[in-house]
Specification:
- The protein has about 160 residues and is an alpha+beta fold.
- The protein is built from three helices and four strands.
- Helices cover about 25% and strands about 40% of the residues.
- It has a four-stranded antiparallel sheet.
- The radius of gyration is 20 Å and the shape is elongated.
- This is Preprotein translocase subunit SecB.
- It comes from Acinetobacter venetianus (strain ATCC 31012 / DSM 23050 / BCRC 14357 / CCUG 45561 / CIP 110063 / KCTC 2702 / LMG 19082 / RAG-1).
- InterPro entries: SecB-like_sf.
Amino acid sequence: MNTNKRDILNPIDEALANLAIKDIFLKSMKCENFKFDIELYPNSDYKVLLKHKVVRSSILESTDHKQHLLRVLLSYGVKWVSKEDPQDELAVIEAEYVAEYKLKQKISDMAIDEFCLKNVGHNVWPYWREFVATTSQRLNLPNLTLPLQKPVKKNSDKK
């Protein structure tokens, strides 16, 4: 019976075995303090809303067809809104990041999807976390430190 390694790997293990991070970079950003002034209104009641999503992924191929790259676009956002009226936006920080991974060999669409949904955000999160911390300070907003994010482990690593 002939089974290759790819046949016995689950999608996450297949992705982790064949992808290596190449680069993470900021694609775009939007930041604005509309009307948040903690000095003038120290008792203002607000809440923080968070957004995080994978927008799209694509496989890029070199002209000689020997190198492949997985490129993933992620969108993040944090918004300060009035607790009384969530439609009343006080400030916003949004950013799009691109994460690129070299492929050792082609992998299944299911492996790409699982990796994008479960692992790429972990790689980009420290960049977003630092961006929010420094940008909120520069916009004179309340200090906001996003929590750490833990990676998804390979099934073989779970106990």
